[in-house]
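Worked Example 4.2. Consider the chain below.
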Amino acid sequence: MTSRTSTADRTDQPARPVRPVPPAGHKPSSKGGTGSGRRVISQAIRPTVLAVIGLLWLIPVYLLLANAGKSDSAYSGDRLWSPGNLTDLWSNIGKVLTTTDVPSGLGASIVYSVAAPLIAVVLGAAIGFAVVVLKLKHGFAWFFVIFCGTVFPLQMMVIPWFDAYARAGLFDTMGGMVVIYSAVTLPFAAFVMRNFFTGIAASVFEAAVMDGAGVWRIFTRIFLPMSTSALAVVFILQATWVWNDLLISLILTQSAATRPVMPLLNALQSVEGGGPGYTVILTAALLVSIPTAVLFLVSQKLFQRGLSLGQY
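Applying the procedure from the previous section yields the following structure tokens:
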């Protein structure tokens, strides 16, 4: 009886698969080794390519630093690659700050690069909130009208802007420049904030309404703090664009008090009429490039977090 039961138990168990026996002369596959070899090659090539690209990007920076640290007599086409010295660099910085209009342009650029992107970011967040969260009637149509501001090139609109500003008395005024920069940077801000708010669950707004919060309080106390990283990214990008703008500021401003730094830097290049030397111009370009570089370095972590939109 016991032997029958054990035999039956053996027959009820599933049969183990039989591993096929490879034929004679068969060699094992080397796909695993090939895959690991490719990964090693990729890990070696990628840093090399990035290093080469980084060096190519740093070559103009080196030339700028090297020639900004030279005197006018030491500057020549044959010695472009030779390094300069700190004494001549400080001397050229003093000439830029005392003999050119660059300092006033730096002040105007700071005002425009802070005020206009800040206005655009707040209005863009309000537009995205109204379209996505409040379900504004014909919201997408209104958003499309605003976003059309990025479709047409600036070269096509500067002449109508010049005529309107001349008639309205806004030409060559700091207030007029803040308004035009805010209008130009608004479509991108609205686009980014609309996409960000679509990633926030609708239950967040519904829960706030159930708790008795009004629309303004929901927007300022809940949605704006949740979108800090996205707001920072939009502000950094638009502030950099406003800082580097040349076309609008060249057409809508005239005096040194209202002109930002880029048109003033461009005016320094006319050295035929007894203007500053090339080394002074290069030093001015170096000073103008520092604020945006510092902005990116200081806000690097916040900028990286803001690139992951729709995180709620």
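Residues 127 and 182 are 14 Å apart (CA to CA). Residues 1-11 have pLDDT under 50 and may be disordered. Compare this with Example 4.1 before moving on.
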